[in-house]
User: What shape does this take?
Amino acid sequence: MIKKRRVKLYNTLSKKVEMFEPIDENRVTIYSCGPTVHKNHTQIGNLRSYTFSDLLKRYFIYLGYEVSHVIKLTDVDDHIVEDCLTHGYDFTQYIEQNITDFIKQLDKVNLIRPTNLPQVTKNIDLLVQEIKALEKKGYVYYSNGSAYFDISKVDNYGQLAGIEKQHSLKKNAQGRLKSFVNEDKKNENDFCLWKNWTKADGDIFWNTIIGKGRPGWHLECSSLARKNLGTTIDIHTGGISHIFPHHTNEIAIAEAITGKKFVNYWLHHDYLIVDKQAMSKVAGTWYVLADVLDKGYHPLILRYVLMKTHYRQALNFTWQAMEEGKGVILKLISFYHFLHQTELLNEGDSTFDFSRLINRAHEKFSKSLANDMNFSDAISAVFEFVGEINSNNKILSKKDARDCIDFMLSIDCVLGFINVLYDDYQIEFELLRNKLEVNKILESRDQKKSEKLYSEADRLRGYLESNGLKVVDVKDRGTYCELINFL
Assistant: This one.
């Protein structure tokens, strides 16, 4: 196990980089805003969010922490109701299908499944109880059957977003208030906790002690985060577009109910843009995972591309970036493949201290991520290590190679793409090697070279390469093959 180290994270609440101090010295709690599971619920910008929270979670696991991670599923809202009523979908089947699809997407980009994936529709009673608790404390009023949170009752409302005065709040922020602009509210930015049923909602509603209807988005996240992770949470992640009003309103609800701090560290990632422009359905740049797969890319290439730009910077997605990502991953897989060529390696100890390189790489990798999740520096440390090993591969022993493999496996607990891709690589490689009877061809090639029949040896190399296998000669060690067209 890697030793625990001090981790620095930029906290949106304090507007500065802070040393991370978990509530429990052995456990980290993380809450992430999840999808609203209507059709086409997850585009690649959303996947950036989930991939970042996965990288964060994996790093804390790498450091030896137990991690409890929650992603809430919003399985009822205006879009879902409209979809079901317009197209005649069965509500339960509709949300179940979309939740299944969401989980499949998480699996495809190799995200560790959250500890909990709570659904709003399975927690209606809790949400009603929360509204009643807020009402008892004087934070709730009703208008036309809907329940609203009175933000004038919160002294530090807007602190997360850096808003000092309530009169400076944006009106109808993000369009989230459009369904309620005609309601009789005390303040333009008071937000809905419970939406009263109307005929437009059809048969999608819940009968409760506060009326017939359904809960509001801000209440759902605030309540289900605390239900699953406790009164105060270590880390809350999400996109910068959610700082106000969504996360601001989560805080208002939680701290009004508990009287305690809701979240200690708020981590927000920047937008994903495409070709330096906002994603657009009109421009044909509104990409989902299926678009990536349709172009023939392995989903783990997307995982790498989503991680490589620092989370607090805008990520400019391009297909060229996907090609570059594929090249980066291929170099790591090729190196990893070489380490498994035991027939080329010595049994005894080498004359070089490879453990020093491994320890140094571990330190640089971990230290980079401890610096506000600096993935770029972390992956640079890995490639520095690969270069140093390759420069000394003539003296690499079997034990050294095993130690290098262990290092790669250790960091892949964070990266999440090397071992999965190498398993795919091995399956494809073994099928091709057996089909082409590679061992016989390489033996024949060695024989031709020993007889100085170099053109014949080159012909055999060309035959293998034309069939997808590159021949690699390691000086003073021997020869092995690797795939040419993997990924």
